[in-house]
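Give me structure tokens for this 291-residue protein.
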Amino acid sequence: MALSLAISPCPNDTFVFHALVHGQVPGAPPVEVTYADVDVTNTAAERGAFDLVKVSFAALPWLLEDYHLLPCGGALGRGCGPLVLTRGDRAGSTDPTGRADPTGQTDLTGATVAVPGDRTTAYLLFRLWSADRPPARIEVVPFHEIMPGVAAGRYDAGLVIHEARFTYPRHGLTALVDLGEWWEADTGLPIPLGAILARRGAVDPEAAAGWIRESVRRAWADPAASREYVLAHAQEMEPDVVDRHIGLYVNEFTADLGQAGFAAVEALLGRATDAGLVPQTSSSRATAWTS
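Here you go.
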């Protein structure tokens, strides 16, 4: 029987899963793919809609009763964090810790901020960063509408991820803060963005991890093999943007979270729990697919 898989159309996901999706991983079952933004998959996973699914690490507290966290295939790294963007005429400065400076224009207390989802890692990081001076309003907006909306003045600021790191200057926007840099400076850990989950009772997590690792290995061994597939789904079609996207988000943590990756997950969920932003999560369930 075919496995249902939900991933984003972003270049890092299509690059990683190309071989698995196209039946090139020995021993893996056929795969039926759904492409959706992570805010959609976060919600769908709560319904148990997919056998394998890409979600936000921030959504794990609501999902780990029904899913195993796999140690590969996701998105973690350094220098790849979400950005808070504003129009150039609103940009200010941050304090030495990267937090919004209460004496400067980075104070968002009266602002409306567009975010890509209320259970995304990006929004969880934003809430931790802005805890002392939160914005007046949050609006959940489809990712592709955030930068144009900020540029047009519909929102005072926008929270963006992925290829927006490379394209936001085209919209006349300025990065108010890089939440990845803030997180790394504060914790010394990589930033955990997207996780791959396997539905309990439907997928053997050890086998699934093996299929995904082989798919990653084949992607790295022959990057050109997935090129047409990646470009067909990318929101930004420029080859340079696609290459930079893959180079940034597909890294050693994609093949294996490792000790640093799991420590980053524990730190994120631990801080969020302490702040009352997410439910308590069992450490064993959060850090091992064997749980």
